[in-house]
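Example record

The entry below shows one chain as it appears in the dataset: sequence first, then structure tokens.
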Amino acid sequence: MSIKLLITDDHSIVREGLKQLFCLYDDIDVIDEADSGDALLKKLKYLKPDVVTLDMVMPGKCGIELIEEISEKHPDTPLLILSMHNEAQVTRGSLRAGAQGYLSKDCDASTLIEAVRKLASGGRYIHSDVAEKLAFELEPEKAPKHENLSKREFHVFCQLAKGFSITDIAHELSISKKTVSTHKFRLMQKMDFSSHSEIVRYALNYELIE
């Protein structure tokens, strides 16, 4: 049985390059592709890929938020992150959000094929270069501040970083504006922030938003 693969990247040249690579292997079948997180979510409603390759930064829903949603709605779909960034904090956040594998886009073809096969067989895969950085940066004192937030606080944080207002978030979550303000106050305290610009800057730095 061939491994059914779904490629997700907002750059067509990347998708084409990956398809040309995978077509060289008889045991891998690219069944579809998506150019955004929203497009991927729609396709996963009727497709059952064995592995999904996923870019971290794309238009619309992406990054940690997208990984969490896919993991919640499609827990049996392995996610292999292909990113231009190999910082330990980004890798750690992706894996904790539900990804099964993480590779830097500058990895060689054999590594990518090995990772796809590993995930399809139920395993996990982290490129050795990324894993080494992760090992050196796993000390608690170096853990990213956003990992101390609750799931709801993290969601509010991401929405604020994207430019949504307190009223917008309250409407989205069907909670009061006072409750949203409380979440904002707590997350600002936990992250030691004093301004909205710090939220945006941090979110961009950690690829939590585009």
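Notes for this example: The chain has ten helices and six strands. The mean pLDDT is 88.
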